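User: Hi! I'm working on a homework problem where we have to compare a predicted structure to a textbook description. Could you give me the structure for the chain below?
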Amino acid sequence: MAFTVVMPQVAETVTEGTVSRWLKGPGDPVERYEPLVEVNTDKVDVEIPSPVKGVLREVVAPEGAVVQVGQPLAIIDEAEAAEAIRPEAPPIAEAGREEPQAPAEAERAAAEAEAPSRATPVEAPAPPQRPRATPRVRRLAEELGVDLSQVRGSGPGGRITEEDVRRHAAQRPAARPEAPPARPPAEEEERVPVTAVRRTIAQRMAASAFTAPHAWLMMEADVTGLVRLRQALKDEFERREGVDLTYLPFVVRAVAEGLRRHPHLNASWSDEAIVLKKRINIGIAVATEQGLMVPVVHDADRLSIAGLARAIADLARRARAGRLRLEDVQGGTFTVDNTGVFGSVATMPIIFPGQAAILTSEAIRPQVRVLENEAIAVRQVMNLCLSFDHRIVDGHQAAAFVAFVKERLEAIGPDTPVY
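Assistant: Happy to help. Predicted structure tokens:
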């Protein structure tokens, strides 16, 4: 019986995917749950497994095709149907017994046994298998001039990772520098092909920017206490936890507490109602070679600062390595972007589709401030920027939320627990 494999719904907001690479070809046997095809979406690269056991009859969507959710990818002849139409093999004679042959047949059989048959086909060697690697890893190998067939993969099932490619490139002997080719006078620009991920990001950001009426505000937070606390804890924390204690988990913790107090910031818009989300799942914007990814820390309000630091470090590492799972990019209710890591002091981010707001934490800079007792001091100051959907949130609600986050960050001191 023929089974049609269709493009699955890999995430809530994903409506299509691009076929990156077929791992099986027509005529190949496939086991149930065996990886069948690699598909690229704006959220994650995924391997789609075969839902059934059988033989791949036809590839409906070739490599490079853009397939909508629910459209066919391939057709598989299930194993039961293949067994039903398989021709019966001739009966095998019992051991030690031979059927009598006519004399002429016996002479012909003996002659055939003595002389090699010229009609016996020689089995062609199997073609080499294509190295297992994601599209991102293949692009990196092409950029570094690495032949993937020469790289031994250290990932699951022998999959080649970015680290494998970089290690292989670093071990090659340095090539003698060549004189750069002359550039024609007319060659003054370069056209970079738009990838499926970049096209989807563009479509979604444009839809959000022109659908949701964006409003924006910024507040300064005196985070001198936070800077001192991190400085005192970071070395021991890294030895104990194996990850860096950055400022981001402190911000995420303050945001999670603020969303409990101001639920309209943890919401989405529909034409019938404003949908308030009960769970606080905070998306963390991560810059990768493929583009901006937003993996999600689920139930962030239930985690300590140390727990948030571990979760964020794990998500960021797997996002950059292309190893995010589907559940890692689903269910976000609010987004935090640590733009300050690049040195920015004020940004106006676009709201992630389906959410009410996005907050950025900017670079921490020393600033001269007048304190309450009129003393002048140098303090560590961070800007907090919020873009919000004005259909869901009014200005006073947004300001109250950011003021709460500011208050929580300014209250951090030497006794603030991280566990």
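For your comparison, note the following. The chain has nine helices and 19 strands. Residues 290 and 317 are 14 Å apart (CA to CA). Good luck with the assignment!
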